User: What shape does this take?
Amino acid sequence: MFQIIKNKLEKLGCDAWELTETLTDSWEFYYIRHQLDQNRAVETRAFEVKVYRLLEDGKFLGSASGEISPTASEAEIDKVLKDLLFQAGLVKNPAYTLTDTPVNGLPKAVMPAPADMAGAFLSAMQHLSETKTEDINSYEIFVRGKTRHFCNSRGVEARVSWPDSMLEVVINARDDEKEIELYRNFTSGICDEKILEAEIARAMQFGRDRLTAVPTPRTDGIPVIFSTSDACSIYEYFADRTNAAYKVQKISPWEIGAPVAEDLQGDRISLEALPELPGSSRNIPVDSEGCRISERFLIRDGVAEHFWGSRQFSEYLGLADSSQVYNFRVSGGTHSEQDLRQGDYLELVEFSDFQVDSMGGDIAGEIRLGYLHRGGKVTVVTGGSVTGSMTEAVSTMQCSEEQKQYDTMVIPAVTKLFGLRITPVE
Assistant: This one.
């Protein structure tokens, strides 16, 4: 099928094309209170094509993409390709070129068997310490082995494989008067049993504390600590603002060689792009456009050093060595976790929603659980909200030397922001 589509693309009459075949071997398990409800094994094959047309004597480049069913007839393939060719003529972007750099010497992928991957998750779930007041309601396990075969009209071809897993868990916590439910979604390449068990144990503790939480009081001027996966949103702000698309579209004001904030008084973070991160669900050495992903600093000691992104926007910026990036590492913290937890602060660990807008820098979250440390006393709180500006907080933010990995990101284990506003429960 891959060769049939490729042959048709070569005869289509378009100016350029890309073809991607993705194979997925998936094992799925559904449990209710540790009792297997159902399981299944699924194999899927998907074909995605993208065609390009040069317009107005090569000044512009139009493109259109679509999927072709693995069971499609040749007549159906022809129709899809002709429709895409027409649609590509309706789009006008400044012209750019597809990559023509050969992808050689790729590391051989080590693909664990789905049965082994699933076994690790099942083992972790069976060894959890549950109580009469905190237990597992249900969980779903998805383990996938993926293989992507890519080629384009400029002779670039690559085949890469990687593991991709997900665990969804529903946790119940109760006392004599009420019961609450917590949802967790863990993504990874393969299962690290110790990390998973620790994360679920921490979630159970949060559930227990939610039962005794009081309304969030007024906390004018108190710093806020982030120590859970929600902190990834803070560092995605940095990753997004080094994206070539954000720069071309004038969303990011950052310049190569310039600090990412004025009057930097806090920690000067460094952000690295990585082709591989142990345990990541996105250990893919070649991006979806056939570009080799290389290890490089995007920000070093608080100074922007490189942009990353799609072939289109990278070429608009004149980047010779760029690609999409799937894994990131943040460093540069100069404080220990213990030091960051000195004095008064509000540690926020649960939100109904938490976002850091990479375009405007707005921070917003509805508080479900927090720990207010004030005057040597710890109060468990719930309700209210946190708001602020990341563009302002960058100048004074403090990070721990200790790090923690959340799937595709390694970030400081503790992040402390100043100047945020806490809206109390009235």
The chain is about 20% helix and 40% strand. The longest helix spans residues 193-210.
